[in-house]
Amino acid sequence: MNEVTVKGFTFGNGTPRICVPLMGRTEEDILNHANLIREELDKLDEKYADYPDLRVAVIEWRADYFEKLGDLEALRNVLRTIREIFSDRILLFTFRSEEQGGELRHDRVGSNLEPIIKTAVTTHLIDMLDVEVTCGNYKIVRATTGAHEMGVKVIMSYHDFQKTPHDEEIENKLRDMDILGGDILKVAVMPRNEFDVRRLMELNHRLVSESYKPVTLISMSDIGLPSRFKCKETGSCLTFGTVGTESAPGQIEVGDLIALLKNQ
C-alpha cells in the first residue's frame, strides 16, 4: 500500500490514525471547542504516554458549521487560531455539503468551493483538505491540484446515509477517488444490519491487501462501531472520535475509542 506521512503521522502502515472533529457556529464557539479538545488531548497524551500510536493525529475543522464561512478574512483568522492551538497535530479542513451529511446546501458548496479551498490552502495553515467526490470531476481535479501545489494532502470522501452499497459500487467509487487525485480514500455508509458491517470490514481488509492507497471504510450508527476500532483487523487507516460533539452517527468519545483501540 502507498503510505502517506504528514507531520510525523503515517497513514497506510497498519496503524489507524485518530481524528477529532472541531465544530462551532461562531468564532467563540469554535475557540471554546478547540480549547476543550486541547485539554482532552493533553490528558490523553499523558495517560497513554507509552503508546504513541494511540495519539490523536488529526483535528478536523468542520468549516461548514461556521456561520461566516463566506467571509474569507474571518476564515483566515479562525484558521490561524486553530493552527496555534493545534500546532503539533495535523489540521484537516472540511466543509461538508448537506447531501453528504454537512451543513451547506449542495448548491452553496458548488459556488463557494473554489474560493474557499483556495483561501484555505494558500494560508499554509492546513495540512489536509477533505474533497467530496460528489462535487463534480472538474471541480474535484482543480481542488486536488491546487491543494497538492501547496503541499496539502487530500482526503477524498463519500458518504451514504441510506444504505451500504454493494462491494462493486464501493470499489468503483474508490477507483474514481484514486483517479481524481485523492491521497487518502474515505467511504462512510449506513448499515442496515450487522452483516453490512462485517461485509464492509472484510472489503476494507481486501482492499488493503490489493495495494490501494490508504483507505478507510466506516460503517456508521451504533451497530457500525466495530468498524471504528477494529482497524488493525481491517487495515483502515483513519478513525474518528469525539470530544463533546459528534459529526457523524456512531462516533464515540475519543477517550473511549482509544481504550478500545488499545485492546485490539
Give a description of the structure.
The chain is α/β, with parallel strands linked by helices. The chain is built from 9 helices and 11 strands. The strands form 2 sheets. Strands 9-8-7-6-5-4-3-10-11 form a 9-stranded parallel beta sheet. Strands 1-2 form a two-stranded antiparallel ribbon. The longest helix is centred in the first third of the chain and has 21 residues, at 27-47. The chain is globular. The two termini are 22 Å apart. The model has no long low-confidence stretch (mean pLDDT 91).
Low-confidence stretches: none
The average pLDDT is 91
Taken in chain order, the helices and strands follow as EEEHEHEHEHEHEHEHHEEH
> Strand order of the main beta sheet, please?
9-8-7-6-5-4-3-10-11
Described by strand count, sense and barrel closure, the largest sheet is: 9 strands, parallel
What general form does the structure show?
globular
Can you give the helix content as a percent range?
A: 40-55%
Query: In angstroms, what is the radius of gyration?
Result: 17 Å
Structural class: alpha/beta
- Please report the number of helical segments: 9
First CA to last CA: what distance?
22 Å
- Total DSSP E strands: 11
Q: Strand share of the residues? A: 15-25%
Task: Please give a quick description of this structure.
The protein is of the alpha/beta class and 264 residues long. It has helices at 27-47, 72-85, 106-122, 137-149, 167-179, 194-209, 226-229, 231-234, 254-262; strands spanning 4-6, 9-11, 17-22, 56-62, 90-94, 128-132, 153-160, 184-189, 215-219, 238-242, 252-253. Helix 5 links the parallel strand 7 (153-160) and strand 8 (184-189).
